[in-house]
Write a structure and sequence with these properties.
rod-shaped; alpha+beta; about 40% strand; disordered N terminus
Length: about 375
């Protein structure tokens, strides 16, 4: 009797537990679906992007001429230019006091006159001596002396004329002119200063030409050569240019090579200021790039990853390590790691793990379906 009652109780418990177990599995599945993260997915897009090499360097004068004094002991009495002045070749920049130089000119002119008069006398004596040769009126020694005096007088005239030319040159150098068109970048000349030969008066940026002296590691020089296009983005607009020269030597300080870029600002744009550290890039053309939204890429442990929908179970994702390349706007190039047919999680990847259950947003699902067609 007791045995019969035991089997009845077991049968009742089995009937009671079975529905509860099935119900628990359904509840767990429902809970997992409810906990799934809603994500959007998109297919990688093949775009034609420019190939660029980023670089930075200082803006400097293409050629900076030093304008210096060529005379000594003269006082500056007038300064015609200042920093930032635009000048033309031949414009007067500095005037020195010319009184002393003018006095030297007058003195040398008088010396020339005196030496020319002496030459006339020496020539007359020499001609007379030559006419009396052989007559016995003059000894051979006297004739020779007259002829030598004539030669000395000619030399004295030439010397006096050379001194006059030198004095004239000194007078000319009391005025300092611009050696080329350009803009004054530095000024040392001050009114009242007494200068010495070689004293710097001005620095001039020739032709008002500024260039970008970009620095690149040696391994990035393969495609950068004379004529390569370059761009420097600025708040006032992009400044374009082209490579003028690639330095033949490598810097011993940082192992980089300087690339000299001639800049061509657009009409109306001011000339860039020298001394500024500028960032830009070299334009090497265009190539196709397999791109995904930048939000699709996550960084973990120093590596880049994306999550893609599994083909077999579209409610789960797989994590894939990728190699990234160029960036443009809100998209990033994937060099390796995904295929064009993959469905990439466009956002929310930071909260996922390999094998996570996800719910694809309706708009994303529609887009994916249309991509499949």
């Amino acid at each position: 009797m007791r045995r019969k009652a035991f089997f009845s109780l077991a049968f009742f418990l089995a009937i009671t537990v079975m529905p509860q177990s099935a119900s628990s599995e359904e509840d767990a599945k429902t809970s997992a679906q409810a906990a799934a993260l809603t994500v959007t997915v998109s297919a990688p897009e093949l775009l034609n992007w420019p190939v660029t090499v980023a670089a930075s360097g200082r803006l400097a004068a293409w050629d900076e001429a030093v304008i210096a004094a060529e005379v000594s002991g003269f006082k500056i009495i007038e300064v015609k230019a200042d920093v930032g002045s635009m000048v033309k070749k031949g414009d007067l920049l500095v005037q020195f006091s010319a009184d002393t130089a003018q006095a030297d000119i007058e003195q040398q002119k008088a010396t020339v006159e005196k030496q020319e008069a002496a030459l006339d006398q020496a020539v007359a004596d020499a001609d007379r001596a030559r006419g009396l040769t052989g007559s016995g009126a003059l000894s051979k020694q006297q004739t020779t002396e007259y002829l030598i005096s004539e030669r000395k007088a000619k030399a004295d005239v030439l010397s006096a004329k050379a001194a006059l030319a030198s004095a004239q040159l000194t007078l000319d150098r009391t005025k300092v002119y611009a050696v080329d068109d350009g803009v004054i970048s530095a000024r040392s000349a001050s009114l009242g200063n007494v200068v010495n030969t070689g004293d710097e008066l001005f620095k001039l940026i020739r032709q008002d030409r500024v260039e970008w002296q970009a620095e690149l590691p040696v391994k990035r020089l393969a495609d950068v050569r004379q004529g390569t296009k370059a761009v420097i983005p600025t708040p006032g607009g992009d400044i374009s240019g082209e490579v003028r020269l690639v330095s033949p030597i490598t810097s011993t300080n940082n192992g980089r090579v300087t690339v000299y870029v001639s800049l061509h600002p657009e009409a109306g744009m001011p000339t860039p200021k020298t001394g500024i550290l500028a960032s830009g890039y070299f334009d090497l053309g265009h190539t196709d790039a397999l791109t995904v939204p930048a939000t699709a890429v996550t960084l973990r442990d120093g590596f880049s990853y994306v999550f893609t929908l599994n083909e077999a179970d579209k409610s789960t994702v797989s994590r894939k390590r990728v190699e990234t390349g160029r960036r443009q706007d809100d998209r990033i190039e994937i060099v390796s790691g995904v295929e064009e047919t993959d469905k990439v999680v466009a956002s929310g990847g930071a909260f996922l793990a390999d094998g996570s259950i996800v719910r694809v947003a309706e708009s994303s699902a529609i887009a994916t379906k249309e991509d499949g067609k």
